[in-house]
Amino acid sequence: MDFLARLGLSIPLIQAPMAGTSTPALAAEVCNAGALGSLALGAIAPDEARRQIADLRSRTAQPFNLNLFVHETPQPDPSREAAWLDALAPLFAEYGTQPPGALETIYESFAGNAEMLDVVLEAKPAVVSFHFGLPDAATIAALKRADCLLLGSVTSLAEAELSLAAGIDVLVAQGWEAGGHRGMFDPDTADDRLGTFALTRLLTRWGKLPVIAAGGIMDGAGIRAALDLGAVAAQLGTAFIACPESSADAGYRALLASDAAEYTAMTRAISGRPARCLANRFTEFGERPDLPPVPAYPRAYHAGKALNAAAKARGETRYGAQWAGQGAPLSRAMPAAELVALLAAELSLT
Q1: What is the CA radius of gyration of the chain?
Q2: SS3 call for 12
Q3: Does pTM top 0.85 for this prediction?
Q4: Fewer CB within 10 A of the terminal residue: the chain, N end or C end?
Q5: Each residue's pLDDT tens digit, 201-236
Q6: Between the CA of residue 285 and those of 203, 288, 325, what are the distances in Å?
Q7: Is the same domain home to 237 and 348?
Q8: Phi-psi bin for 243: left (phi > 0), alpha (psi -120 to 50), beta?
Q9: Could you give the number of structural domains in the chain?
Q10: What range does the domain containing 190 cover?
Q11: What region, left, alpha or beta, does residue 54 occupy, with left being phi > 0 and alpha being psi -120 to 50 degrees?
Q12: Sign of dihedral through CA atoms 31, 37, 40, 46?
């Protein structure tokens, strides 16, 4: 399969979905510039997904990617969750409030989600991608009948084997460097922490599916390195956060543009799953050795979002989910179309 030809791309570049940060405007600008723009549906309800897809469609006629989260639906654990809320209570108190009385499952997995599947099938996007796991065989078959190209995020060869067996068309090789949530199918298993280029090369040598490299890539030289290792494209997320079309707030942008971008941390404390974030007050809290176990994703995220909102209301922005990869110091603030053009120019010079 010729990945670029199938999608009509002029540059081997995918803008990462980035739930909570990507927008229809960002995805459209990337698409119109010749790359593949992505829209994250994992953390929104079906009605909002329909609205955002319509917004994206009004801005571009080019192919785009819709991304879904396929995590295990969490079971409430009252004692564990109460202990976590008690641990967070002093932080909430600093900002004159209290944690939620109980945690909630703030958004649903795509696994078994018939209503969200209907939304995606109605849209018939050129590309559908999955994070945290894989949907069932019936869902994959339905998406294939709609002629969607299916991308699956993997962090290991074992996950690649499962993706091949499930019918995934293209792998997104997510390295340890990547910002945001680790795509591990089971976050409680041992993580080999494979880097982007090591994982990309392992998968291209395996050779059973096309590979997209993701994690720590910020410029044309990084894209070229991925292609030289056998990848068909590179996926960049942190590179697009500083674009005006993203929904990153002022605190997030300021931290990314500062020396703080030189430091990232992998933490469960914010959401309940491992995720790479700019080092901030929340990641610092998450490193405390006396903390009780973090509740399951995304129930822990209910408390994380509430704490960030309370802190922001008092002018403290460093409790946000300020996801970023290890290439964050290479961030460049410019409109998305200009960034795509710059990345293409840099790639052509390498």
Answers
A1: 19
A2: coil
A3: yes
A4: N
A5: 999 999 999 999 999 999 999 999 999 999 999 999
A6: 36, 6, 20
A7: yes
A8: beta
A9: 2
A10: 1-73+108-246+333-350
A11: alpha
A12: positive
